[in-house]
Structure to design on (274 residues):
């Protein structure tokens, strides 16, 4: 979805939603996702373009230059939906910290991915309004959407989400405390048992997947493989106006045996439930 700001009246056919009660108003977030650091159409000939340097190790690993380089900037209240991208991702945090909740492609069976109609939010009632209309974008068809949800800020499970945990959450060691999976020795990856599905969907049939939680701090980077499901929340830096700032590099995914396997596994699961 995309968000636009307008003070025009709400069409009678557009449903209206409000910001959660814990928020004082809309969450402002800088994100263009179209190589915003390198295209003149976003920031023009500013100093930002000169600050972007290609990562030599990533070019060597992927055998190509990045398809896009993006900037992400916002407050601690910003959080994404659980989703996936068709790019290998090198994610670099410049200020604050990013908190990732991760599921590998093989866990798609538990995420209740369904096709939903494309739509966009439109603010109504002025810039300070907490009300948004949801406008359908029928011409764009449907998009696969994770409906299991329920993850709150910093990856904590929200019991009021669309599902419930299948068992009590318990923190444990993931890939280690030596920075494996992140770009620095301070990075930590932690595993926590919190299934995204409803208990009835898991009982007696399948084990509940365990998400991996990773915190990436300023000066660190994360390699996020293509097609991994991820939800991202953040903690702002009080010395940078309470903002979290990050830059990421997207590299075109290699559609090899791994992609064939995950596509097959998803097709089998959809057929089983179809």
């Amino acid at each position: 979805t995309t968000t636009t700001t307008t003070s025009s009246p709400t069409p009678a056919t557009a449903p209206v939603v409000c910001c959660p009660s814990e928020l004082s108003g809309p969450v402002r977030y800088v994100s263009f996702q179209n190589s915003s650091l390198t295209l003149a159409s976003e920031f023009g000939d500013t100093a930002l373009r000169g600050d972007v340097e290609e990562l030599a190790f990533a070019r060597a690993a992927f055998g190509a230059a990045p398809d896009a380089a993006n900037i992400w900037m916002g407050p601690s209240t910003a959080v994404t939906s659980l989703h996936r991208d068709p790019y290998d991702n090198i994610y670099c945090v410049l200020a604050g910290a990013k908190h990732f909740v991760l599921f590998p492609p093989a866990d798609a069976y538990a995420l209740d991915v369904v096709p939903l109609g494309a739509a966009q939010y439109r603010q109504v009632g002025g810039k300070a309004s907490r009300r948004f209309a949801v406008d359908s974008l029928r011409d764009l068809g449907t998009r696969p959407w994770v409906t299991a949800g329920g993850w709150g800020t910093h990856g904590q499970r929200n019991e009021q989400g669309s599902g419930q945990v299948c068992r009590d959450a318990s923190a444990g060691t993931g890939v280690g405390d030596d920075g494996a999976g992140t770009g620095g020795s301070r990075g930590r990856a932690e595993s926590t048992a919190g299934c995204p599905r409803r208990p009835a969907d898991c009982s007696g049939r399948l084990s509940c997947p365990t998400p991996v939680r990773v915190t990436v701090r300023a000066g660190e980077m994360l390699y996020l493989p293509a097609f991994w499901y991820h939800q991202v929340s953040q903690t702002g830096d009080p010395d940078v106006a309470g903002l979290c700032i990050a830059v990421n590099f997207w590299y075109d995914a290699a559609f090899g045996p791994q992609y064939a396997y995950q596509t097959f596994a998803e097709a089998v699961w959809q057929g089983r439930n179809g």
In short: The two ends are 26 Å apart (CA to CA). Helices lie at 40-43, 47-50, 56-62, 199-202, 257-272. DSSP finds five helices and 15 strands in the chain. Confidence is low (pLDDT under 50) at residues 1-12, 151-194.
